[in-house]
Amino acid sequence: MNRNKLFFKKLFIFILLILAVNVLLNTAYDRWMYYFRLSRNQDKQFEVYSDTLKYLMLGNSHDRINPAILGNGFCYIMPKEVYTQTYYKLKYILEKTNKKPENILLSIDPVNFCPRAENELAFDGYWRKYLNYFEIARELHDPEYLLNWVTGTFFSYIGNYKYIFMSAIFFNADLHKIKDGYIPARNYRNFANEPDREALGFEIATAYLSSYSNKSMLGETIYYRKILALCQQYKIHLILLRMPMTDEYLKYARKMVDLDKLDRDIMEVTRNHCNDFEIFDFRNEFHNKPWYFFNADHINPEGVRIISKKLKYALEKKAIVK
Amino acid sequence: MLFNSIGYLIFLPVIVILYYALPYRWRWALLLAGSYFFYILWRVEFVLILMSATLVSYLAALKMGQKAKKKDRKIFLIISIVINLGMLVFFKYLGFFTDIINQFAAITGNKFSIPYYGILLPIGISFYTFQTIGYTLDVYRGVIKPEKNIGIYALFVSFFPLVLAGPIERGRRLIPQFHVKHDFDPQLFTSGLRLILWGMFKKIVIADRLSIFVQPVFSNIAYFHGIEIAIAGVMKMMQVYADFSGYTDIAIGSARLMGFRLSANFNRPFSAQSISDFWHRWHISLTSWLRDYVYFSLPFKYHGKTVSWRLNINLLITFVLVGFWHGPYWNFIIFGFLHGSFMILANITKPVMNNFNRITGLSNSPFLLKTLNITATFLLVCFTGFFFGQHPLRDSFLIIENLTDFSQTGKAILLPLLKNNDLLLSFALIIFMLWFEYLIAMKSFATKFMSKPVALRYSAYLFMLFFILVFGIFSSQKFFYFQF
After folding, report:
1. Residue B326 among the catalytic residues
2. Is the pLDDT reported for residue B479 higher than 70?
3. What ipTM is given for this predicted complex?
4. Which of B272, B348, B353, B424 qualifies as a cystine partner to B277, CB 3.0-4.6 A?
């Protein structure tokens, strides 16, 4: 009996140690994770934003448009953001703040609809403020989403060693460069100088698009449709974008999925749920121009500048860019 | 519920605490309820199949127990095997056989074709069917007496640590453990926790990370050639090992927390010196099952004498069955056939090889000979691994064709990705896993470790735990062997 008592005493101490280390890691990660710092900085900037909110950019790191070029806009994108998160952020903005954007900019590439993107709710440590995990679990009939709340609240660091390293590297990053939510695009390498562009294109295309079990069937669209419904309800004009991609990425993307068919399906869903939108297609804008890219699927600051200008021009002329 | 899910991390402690809190006579009921709850979370309908398999083998064994003569028991054995195997064939192999018949009809010019509707494979059916068949065979042979308590027997079939992917336990080993009162044993409990931790490390940190590289190669095989396929082939076998042995460690560890001892399923398979040695170290519970109930049941005498060609044919049949057990695909049949053939070849060429080793002086350098044998076995296993999967058979041949094609090396896709830190980390982790398992295999390591100060041991456990948490892939990937 004494042996057992001693064992349980040791076990108790060990569990306390685990909890202590966990609290320490979770707090440190939550406080210093680079993306969290960026996004919370965006939150603060959005809170004090007092200009006319003509354009609000939502979505993930692909959808980088410079609001300084576009004028009267706020760039509220976050890396790895999926439509589920976009929907809840937009809902929060419309219901909990007194800011109402006139136009919302959102990208509609098939990669946003692939099953992997749909299932992956990343960075719950930040997103738990916006997301209603119980509602998501109920709507998607998957209780696992409740665990995202648990992870985001108590274990936000788990599986994130890359972001821990990244946060250490960018520990002294100057967050003042963020203006109207716009985080300048990465520029420390250029895709044109990559010796293995094919490999990089293949890697990125496979990472997400290979999760399509049927290469010509769109993934889940529930939260995209909810975004459209919110826009309808609040009478917000929707500006849909197809952002530029490298030739290498598109080559493999076309092998993974039927891009044209998926594009048509996305348009059909959009038309069925929204009647106030327009679309600007920049996908092949930088065909044979790899120097405008940071990597296979992200444009660099120069690329952002050009696309932002083109978009501004197109919006002014109301011409569909093709 | 997956072992590598937060759900299981809640479920297991609850069950363990309740297990020790309950009076002994109710513990089996708790485990049975817990096991069915664990299983039902996959799909409610699957429980009916599990229950049917349990009921049929239970009743057949009871009836056999009432018959003194073996020949009187036979009919119940046949009924039980036909029903249990019938369910396995229906759910797992019906599509395969339908396909063969339809193709045969098409070749011979017949216009008929049997319609086939995709049937969902009940998870764990290959494992628990073999467990129930093994039990009825043991009762038939008089090795064990039939279990009278249907609850205990149902627990034997559905015990949550092993119902999904084994180890395939024998009735004579596991059922008596359910009848014994397990007092809390701190040593066994701690060893169980250590195994769970090690299993989680293999699954979450190694196997799931390797799958990030292996899966794209084998799903897009046309793009890969030469060295890329060779690397992916090695990584695939490491992934399967880390995945399945990780699962088994968690299963055995979970059972130990409640005082149960399950059979070992792996014993450092990549240190095997021959294919035969490999199968004594890989999925031991399956190979020993097939050895005891199939291989030894096949006729090995010809005109009253034991002849080697009969033994070799039996070996081939057994290994084709090993392959076919994994799934209704020609790939797996070829996988088993290759392993059986390699073993027969080794048997036939043994005298020649011994002479060769003597002449070349290899037999005087045991270390070199051992290293060569281990390397050759490992490469053969990796080669057969190209057939180990549910991809179409033509893809397996395309893999081999592309493997020998070095003309495309300039266009290599995987090699640039080798620069990726994740991949380098994976290689380092593989080496660590093999080295650490070598240490564990040496009994003195455990004794030395346990004699270290408690602060040091706790620090080691904490480091391992948080290493898993930080470096793990937490997308709740299923275990590789769940598909079987």
Report:
1. yes
2. no
3. 0.76
4. B272
